[in-house]
Give the backbone structure.
Amino acid sequence: MQMVDMFYDQLEDAKQRKVPFVIPIGTIEYHALHASCGTDTMVINGVLRELEKTKEIVVCPPIWYGVASYAVSGPEKGTIQVDVDAYENYLYCILKSMIYGGVKNIYCVAHHQTEEAGLMPMTLACHKAGKKVIMEYMEETRGKGWWGSNDYADYYENLGSGDDPFSYIKVIPLLSAEAQHKCGGFDHAGKYESSLMYALYPDHVDLERTKKNTEWFALNSVETSMELGKHMVQCALETLDKIIV
């Protein structure tokens, strides 16, 4: 289900049943000469589109602008960089509205700079915003000292479950480290990411333009293939199906 298409009673029902609410965490960034600048966000949207076919989830509107950084290119090539502090506060406001509104099963799914599922500025901002919201929510609704009260004597028994408040918001990569290994690799605008995008949005990858790339990270984009892309989509789906519950 797409959140923007849902009516109030449908949203309330999803909240009550703790259906996963999934937020695509994206960026607008230069992806060489052959792939669109929305690649990082679009691949998440595309995989979730496929996941929707087999799993009940609520797909929230993507956050298109993100902490892209100017590591790959400057703004002159289309990269739009949001300062990490501003981004963290923006995401904090979104997550706060959702948590206080009764959504207690949120997944922030990122693809940008998620090699080996490592923590980078954007994913760190997501983690920080999420934890800040939860700490404030629990203190405001349960009072100071909530964790130390006897009401939470079973805290460790529920650790990681739906009853664990620190599991209300989870930050995960589109491709886990395990999925990346199964795919055979991970890159930026190279054969792996380009193939993933090509399988999901073939009209947003121009195979002829791959031959014009001169930057090191995009040289092997000439090896972009639908077969590899579909394999990567399947790897992502298998992992997400296990993680998103």
Remarks:
- The chain has one domain: 3-175.
- The two ends are 15 Å apart (CA to CA).
- The helical segments are 8-16, 39-51, 84-100, 121-142, 177-183, 191-200, 207-210, 226-243.
- The mean pLDDT is 97.
